[in-house]
Each structure stands twice: as structure tokens, then as C-alpha cells.
Amino acid sequence: MSRRQLLRHAGWFGSAVVLTVAGGEVVSHIAHDKDSAAAAATAADANALRFVQVSDSHIGFTGPANTDVTASFSEAIEQVNTLGFRPDFVMHTGDLTHLSTAAQFDQVRQMLSEVRTGRVFTVPGEHDSVGDSGRAYRQAFGAGTTGDGWYSFDTHGVHFIALVNTLSLEKLGHLGTDQIDFVRKDVAGLSSDTPIVVFSHIPLFAMYPAWGWSTDDALQVLALLRRFASVTCLNGHVHQLFSKTEGNVTFHSATTTAYPLPAPGKAPAPTPQVLPAGQLKGALGIRSVTYTSAATPLAITDTRLA
Amino acid sequence: MAVTTLALATACGSSSHPAAAANPSTAIVPGSGQSLAGSPGATATGPLAGASDMPSMTGMTGMTMPTATTGGAPAAPVAGNAVQIMNFAFAPAALTVKAGTTVTWTNKDSDAHTVTSQGSGGPLASAALSTGQSYSYTFTKPGTYAYLCTIHPFMTATVTVTP
Ligand SMILES: [Cu+2]
């Protein structure tokens, strides 16, 4: 993506924007009612795949940036439960908890069990792996996963890969050779026109390496996905919406249900941001994704809590 | 409610889609050789895949409890063996001490941080330090010890231990 295109994306917050990706070129414009209507029509298709991404709930966080993250997460779950359709699954892309305590994992597990959906998936954030290399996380959420918690699944003709890039951190996110080998074998038998969706906590693209917002060995995984016509990478960690396209791969950073972080470089450090009274909910939200078939667009809708 | 809609026309735009046509399954099935991860939601339907097998715990190091103390942060920087954690940075970022010195890290930030050796097998392994909490470690062997905060791994620093 060119610098010009990046700048075009810089001002997303606060307005409804539609992005159309065609041939690697990203074009953004202000949303019109017909776009929402199209998204709603797709969402009404019973054969469509519909899933929701929720991220960075930081259960256990206390601080002025959000004095009640539990209430915010409850509200996000309520929002999922009142979308007007039952998502096929809900994916939480990490930082379920703030400090990986047993009580925090227990609380978030109970809360997630109330989501009206077929299945709830997770990937760990670095806050879910504090001091124990992710052991408590895997005890609570690791059933059915391999290695240090990674896995893949298929539905509606789409192949999903859930990665763990929050262990063995040295400045940046890290996948490691075992996990890269897993992806290599995992996609080996797939036809190149299978749509691929990859979930990770830390971005797989270099969103802002100075704050660790990148993954040092992501290119090795992306190289394995290069032959696929459509690859969508969905991440959390950065607590703000951001999108970027590199060839056949589109990256989308999700927002948070807990508290905002500064835009890249807009503060000395990525510290929780205290917003003026009444503005917090506007920075929090959930994302729903709809996919009908290869012939129609993948529609990604980000919804604010307020 | 403000809504941001991203409509993505993927490059996968051909009208025929062999993978989907051959496998119109709307069920969620685990990847080859795996069992289904995740857990059922509140409205799960159909048979649920067994979720009994725990993942392997490879790469996990033993958890050592740090000597964390609440409150009572040192009043002033102590020359030589104190590291302050402030503004998402370790200060000093490079500390030199003699073997036998006990170094104490104190978190002055409102967010939690850890003091953790880089790589595996290093001696520094604090729990998450809340505001005002400290972690101490006594260095006995000369060498350079690189460490970071696992919650904010861009925070890196070193302690060099001389004989
Ligand atoms: Cu986070």
C-alpha cells in the first residue's frame, strides 16, 4: 500500500466508511444507506457464513481509561446477541484477560458461554500469557488446539487458521518454526481458490513495529498463503480499526471492548487512553463478517458500542 | 449507533468456486488431523466435537514466583541496583552491577509490567507487577542479561554483571 493510500485510511474513526478492494487497490468512500442495505441483505441469506470478531476485552483491567471493562464486555456480548442473526461462530482475538489470573479466565469463559452462536473460538493475547507462557490460557481455552494453542477449521468453503503470536516475544509478535510448519502442512492440500481467513492477536503486518505492532516471522506464513486468491487476516491488539492490503492479502485490525490505545506514534507509549466523558463507547465495538460465495464480496461490518 | 462498513470485493471473484461447490458444508469441521477447538456457544446445535484432549505444553518453562512486594516503593533512585519502570520503559535501560548484587525493579506506571529474561532459560521471571510493586533478583554469575516486559515486549533493557 502506498503512503497516499495509508493516509486515506488514517481518518476512519468517527465516520462510516466503505472500503472496496479490487485488484489490490483500496478505495474508500463515505458509507451510503445502500451499502448498509446490501450488507443487511447478505446477512439475511440463510446460506451465508456469518461470524463475529470481538477483541481485547482485558477482563480484570482497572484504570481511568475504562472503570468497568466487565460492563463493556457484557454490552458487546449483548450486541452480538441482538445482531438480528445468529453468527455461525464468534472469534475473540485475544487479550481476553488483563493479567492471566485464574479468576479472570473463569469470568471471561462464563461470559463467552452466553454468546448466542454455534461456537466460540479464541486466540491468546500477550495479556493472556503473563508469566506462564500461556499455560493458564490453554487450560481454559486450549481444548482441541495443537502445539501452543493453534488450530484450523473449515466452514462454508472457507478455511480458517487461528495463530498464536504472543509467546516468545522479543519486541515483536512471533510465530516460531513449529507453527509455521503447521500452516505449511495445513494448507498443503487446499485448492488455491479456497478463501483463507487468518486470526491472530498481534498484527501479521508491520502496523507500528516501534510499539511491537508487528510479527517478526509473519512473512514466512504469508509466503505460504501467497498462492491463494483471497487471504483475509483479522487481528486485535492495537485497539483500533485499521486496514491494509498487500497483494492478495488484506489485513484488518479490530477495535476493543475495553479501552482505546493511541494511534501509531501519536503518544510516547501505547498507554490506555482516557477519552472525554461520554466518548468511550464510540471507541469500543464488535465486528461482523459475512460471506456468501466466491462470487460475492466478503462484507466486514464494524459496529460501535454506542 | 455509528457503523463502519467495509465491503470487500475479494480477488476471489470467479463465478465458479470448486472448493465451495464440492464441499457445501455449513458445519464447522476441524482442520485435517485436528479436533475441533473452541467451545460451544449458547445456541450451539448438533453434535459437539469432543473437547477432551488438551494441547501439548511444549515450550513451557517452569513458573517461578518472584519476590514481589506491594507498596513501599523506594523514595529515591538508589545508585547502582535499582531500575524504575516508568512511561513504558526501564530506567536505566543498561545497568552494570558487580556479581552478588541484588537488583530491584519497581513499577511506577499505572499499567502492569513484567521483568522477564529474553529467550528461554534466563533467570528473570517476575509476575505481572502492578503499580508500586517490586521484583528483586540477585545476580551471581557475570555476564549480560537481556530482559523485557512480556506484556509490552518493545520494552527491552539489559543488566551487565561484572566479576
Ligand atoms: Cu490489548
Label this structure with key terms:
heterodimer, A: 306 residues, alpha/beta, six-stranded mixed sheet, five-stranded mixed sheet, 13 strands, globular, disordered N terminus, B: 163 residues, mainly beta, four-stranded mixed sheet, 1 helix, elongated, binds copper (II) ion
Sum this structure up briefly.
By secondary structure, chain A is of the alpha/beta class. Chain A contains 8 helices and 13 strands.
Low-confidence stretches of chain A: 1-38
- Mind describing the biggest β-sheet of chain B? 4 strands, mixed
Largest interchain contact: A-B, 114 and 78 residues
Gyration radius over CA of chain B? 25 Å
Tell me the distance between the termini of chain A.
31 Å
By DSSP (H or I, 4+ residues per run), the number of helices of chain A equals 8
How many helical stretches of chain B? Answer: 1
What is the oligomer described by this structure?
heterodimer
Strand sequence of the main sheet of chain A, in spatial order?
6-7-8-9-11-10
Beta-strand content bin of chain B: 25-35%
Category by helix and strand content of chain A: alpha/beta
Could you characterize the architecture of this molecule?
The complex is a heterodimer of chains A (306) and B (163). Chain A is α/β, with parallel strands linked by helices and 306 residues long. Chain A has eight helices and 13 strands. Chain A is globular and about 50 Å long. Chain A starts with a helix and ends with a strand. With 163 residues, chain B is mainly beta. Chain B has one helix and eleven strands, in the order βαββββββββββ. Chain B has one helix at 18-22, and strands at 3-8, 29-30, 39-40, 82-86, 89-91, 94-98, 102-107, 116-117, 134-138, 143-148, 156-162. A four-stranded mixed beta sheet of chain B has the order 5-4-7-9, with no helix packed on it. In chain B, strands 6-11-10-8 form a four-stranded mixed beta sheet, with no helix packed on it. The termini of chain B are far apart. At the A-B interface, strand 1, helix 2, strand 5, helix 5 and strand 6 of A face strand 1, helix 1, strand 2 and strand 3 of B. The complex binds copper (II) ion. The site of copper (II) ion has 7 residues of chain A, from loops.
